[in-house]
Amino acid sequence: MDYVKVCDAYGAGFYYIPGTETCLSIGGYVYFQLGATNDRGVFPDTPNYHAFGYGGYNVATRGRLNFDARSDTEWGTLRAYLRLQGTWGTNADGNVAFNQAYLELGGLRMGYTESAWVDSMNAGVATYGSHSDGGLFYAYQMRQQISYTYSANGIAATLSLEHDDDGFLGTAGAAAAADWVPDVVGVLSYNAGWGGAWAKLAYDSDYLPLAGRQDGFAAQIGMQYNIPNMNGSSLRLLGFYADTPNAYAVGSRWSVLASYNHVFTDTFSASVGVQYFGDTNYGLAGTPDGWAAELSTVWTPVQNFEVRTETVYTEAEGQDGSLSGFLRFTRYF
Q1: Residue 303 — φ and ψ, nearest 5°?
Q2: What is the 3-state secondary structure (H, E, C) of the chain?
Q3: I want to staple 252 with a disulfide (CB 3.0 to 4.6 A). Which of 75, 126, 193, 277 is the partner?
Q4: What is the pLDDT of the chain when averaged over all its residues?
């Protein structure tokens, strides 16, 4: 009889599948969330960050399962990853489906997951936006992709070809297959004990297909500094630029983001973030600006149980500001 054995080659939580050399980890979480906003959903209110409805509390429950299978080969680690998720909102049932699936062999990644603009192999701190759960505005998205990452001595370089599916209709009325030119993302990052720095460049081959071919570029630079002797506290600075409102733009021609997370105790931390947006019309009529600010707290009174709050204020030039926030309870496993 084969017994389940612990596999420590890839960290905690992996076990050998009986009769094989493949290690499998199953994890995930369940959360319950209450949210609210003062945004009435009409002009001149700036749309609220969390897209909550007005006139009452917003409730959401989510369940997520992650399946991660890995084994060693002469070409590097062979990996398959699946993410099963369902979210139930206010008066609405959620569909349960696999919303991520990809495979890896060494530095090669193929499948559907976060764009390399958001996350890539061995990127370290060069991922997502601010310290909060939402991360403010950094063009989060998931894509079909083929990417390759080379990593050595804290440096990681990624080139990703990503499917440019704009969801428009072809001449026969059926969903078009985008085009023959993929979007391209390049990432260069460096990670060390003090933190890390990175640069990203993206090309959107056709962000407005019904108006004829419209391509665009976006760039991102950033750094994280880990505060010495402060138990996980860190400062993040990010800068964004886009020549058009393409898929990798954050809602303006340029933007800067600053975020600081302070770990007060082993069970409590808090972060603050602010982001400024310059020229939300990308050089067209007028050049309105905007800004956003956030406050987030995380309390873990017992292992694998988290209480999180997040409040975000957004304001576009010439409009009234909007406030939204949530209280979330999460059980990880």
Answers
A1: -60, 135
A2: CCCCCECCCCCCCCEECCCCCCEEEEEEEEEEEEEEECCCCCCCECCCCCCCCCCCCEEEEEEEEEEEEEEEECCEEEEEEEEEEEEEECCECCCCEEEEEEEEECCEEEEEEECCCCCCCCCCCCCCCCCCCCCCCCCCCEEEEEEEEEEECCEEEEEEEECCCCCCECCCCCECCCCCCCEEEEEEEEEECCEEEEEEEEEECCCCHHHCCCCEEEEEEEEEEECCCCCCCEEEEEEEEECCCCCCCCCCCEEEEEEEEEECCCCEEEEEEEEEEECCCCCCCCCCCEEEEEEEEEEEEECCEEEEEEEEEEEECCCECEEEEEEEEEEEC
A3: 277
A4: 92
CA dist 132 → 184, 293, 308, 309 (Å): 27, 11, 10, 9
CA within 13 Å, CB half, 193:
3
Give per-residue pLDDT as tens, 83-125: 999 999 876 677 899 999 999 999 999 999 999 999 999 999 9
222 and 201 Cβ atoms separated by less than 8 Å: no
Express each pLDDT in 196-253 by its tens digit.
999 999 999 887 765 556 889 999 999 999 999 998 999 999 999 999 999 999 999 9
| Whether this model's pTM surpasses 0.85 | yes
**Domains of the chain, with CATH numbers?**
107-296 (2.40.160)
